[in-house]
Structure of Membrane protein:
Amino acid sequence: MSSPTDETTSAEPVPASLDAGQRVAPTRTDPLVAAASRPIGGPLGEHAAVGRHWFWTPQRVGLALATLALMLCWFGKASCIQQYVDDSGQTQLDWRSGRPYVAMCYSDVVPLYSAERLDQAGAFPYRTSWVDDAGTPSAQVRYMEYPVLTGLFQWVNAKLAAGWHAAADAGWLPGGLPVVLYFDITAFWLAAAWLITVWAVGRTARRRPWDACLAAISPLVLVHAFTNFDTIATAFAATGLLAWARRKPALAGLLLGLGAAAKLYPLFLLGPMLVLCVRAGKLREWTTAAGTALVAWLAANLPIALTLNAGWQEFFRLNAQRGMDPDSIYNVISYFTGWPGFDGPLAPGQSPTWLNIVSAALFLACCAGIAYVGLAAPVRPRLAPLCFLVVAAFLLTNKVWSPQYSLWLVPLAVLAIPRWRLLLGWMLLDALVWVPRMFYYLGTDHKGLPPDWFLGFVVLRDLAVVGLCVLVVREIYRPAADAVRAAGDDDPAGGVLDRARDVVVLRRRRPRHAG
């Protein structure tokens, strides 16, 4: 290990191939984008007037494309909010004949409206409880199962839907079933959160603003923007990275802490920041970010934890007791090997102890390996690639990989490895997992698919993510292959780490030769 008095290793990238401040044009550097640009005139010309259009900037183009993608996603989910009048003259939600799976429009937002008791007038998350499987040995008292900010987000939208419904009954607004109004209001805010994500990615990329279009048109957005509530967390994580890139560690910590109160994963980004700050001797900035993140998380959680503790603990209790998810690698291994699993069938309230231990141990082992790479690479890695590796490691080793979790990787992947053809191929493959998943849930009795098809696609998705991780590590050890550094940048998302010199570097000892 080196010290401040040892010879330092600079984080300087390979020699710049562009003038300082010059934007990177994907139509010149990426074969796929260059080919796609031909119908509109081909790659950017040498004498093009870049940055002089009165309205259409790369940022606004990216937001426009994201808006189009979100509209298509809404239309894809709209089949699941169709209504019909039953024989008794009552308007009902049309989920007959397995519509959510056949039309592949399923969204957790719709069933959670009643499952989380959001349709009840006096209900409040973490206070309102109910009993699942009442009268059976598996009966359990249940509360809102989401982290605080996500739970309150659902409650506020339910109140807005109730207000809209009352105004519709009075003739002031168009009406619909309360659950339909709730879905549409929720989708509006989730769309706004994804637009914030795309905006933050474009700002963080700096000289590569067009890369935000990769996040905007991601096939994963077309399928999963409204599957659950994950775009809230991606917005906090992306803006947290942007604040860090702008050398505002306190703001970055605030955003990441609030993101962790909506979904746990934004907190993981503090790990790569710590590793790189140790290497660059910037622990003061990291401490500011981490301390602010803790304060923000506590500020969001303590009011509920102190007053409604039983409901607040529900998220942690369910995560501890939850078994292997159908999309997890553990379920794949169990199915194809015939191995019954870590603990076998669980009794009510019992936790899958060994599954939890193995999952946590594998994730911690991956984090240790990533930390070693961050401290031992010949050139200090960029922040975004290490963040991508940590989140990808969590998804690959976790016992749960809900399909919408893949959205977490999109902004990080765009900042880490902005290779359009490669990322679009991975995102398309990941999005296509939705098709066999829906027909797997439809069941073979209703002309669905057997598990083999679905789990086979899960394996392909996992292999694709592993391949991206291998590429990221390769580019860390070969900076000349890194598209960002090859253009002359060091670490656009690094903030205080950008072009900083190293203080602590792990070095392999050279063997001494007898002389």
